[in-house]
Amino acid sequence: MNTVRFFSISGLFIGLLILAGLIIWQGVGEVITLLLEGGWLLLTLPLIWLPGFIIQVHGWKYLFPTGRVPPFRELFLAMWMGRAINTLLPVATIGGDVARARLLHLWGRDGMDACASVMVDKAVQALALVPWSIIGACLMLMLAIDDQLALYIAAGILLFGLNVVGFIFLQRKGMFGFSARLIARFNSSENWLRITDNAHSVDDIVRELYAHKRRFMASLFWRTLGLVLTTGEVWLACYLLGYPVSIIEALILKSLTQIITDIAFVIPNGYGVQEGGFMAIGALVGLAPDVGLAVSLAIRIREVVFDVPGLLLWHHIEVKYLFRKAAAHPSPDKV
User: Fold this and answer.
1) Residue 160 · residue 259 · CB < 8 Å
2) Using one digit for the tens of pLDDT, what is the confidence trace for 158-196?
3) Residue ranges covered by each domain of the chain
4) Rounded to an integer, what distance in angstroms lies between the CA atom of residue 308 and that of residue 189?
């Protein structure tokens, strides 16, 4: 855990350095001027992004055992807070997923169902990037923007997709139970034996979820559609900044920068990586580097408008739970 935290904090530091370097390179004043020209209407960007997020939440509901699907409200809140944690905290893009499983359990849902569902949803989330980025690469080829780069991107997508398929294979083969058994060789306590048993139960539910191929494919479809709909925020950002692009160009920008950002998962929230992607891919559709940088910073407004409240709500729920737990189990010196 300390190693993961070290790499996460190191990645955050590197990402912020890259981001600061790009802003200084393009000129702090020029970038701020571009954003100010967009005005208060830039605050509407999270609104055009929200429908895509809601559709992705809808896709998650297919990844629960039949008859044990939590209400949409719980799924929305859990994914919202999980996304906020992954976005704003250095948690190696998995801390938020652990949190959403925990939240569902706190709200009375079966813990093993929640864990299995989140793990499969993580695989679907990664797998959805493959068709999403293929769309962007194909559009680059169709518009003859840069055939050579499109082919390089396609090769990268293929490699990324093979890694996702390998991850799914390991999940179906019982990776959680295997990991627990491996650790059990060095920890034979009764508590860990119970964890090992639970890990095997989670593996069984994971296999059950993958066995329902139609539900899995439905989840993948809705996840991908949700990603496509988030293109609207890039299109609107370019328009508000005074450098309009077509929907197709916006889709190329959004899809290819997202795959670049997700591949560089060691950089929390893709700080610097996303900006560099928008500058590079933006140049291919006619955007100057400073404009591409401004567009990337503009769509990060949702991290303030949407993610900060989610993080605060998660903190409130956890603190409330701790107080309730302390009241139910007072320490001996207070009795």
Assistant:
1) yes
2) 888 888 888 888 888 877 665 555 444 444 444 434 555
3) 49-264+302-320
4) 40
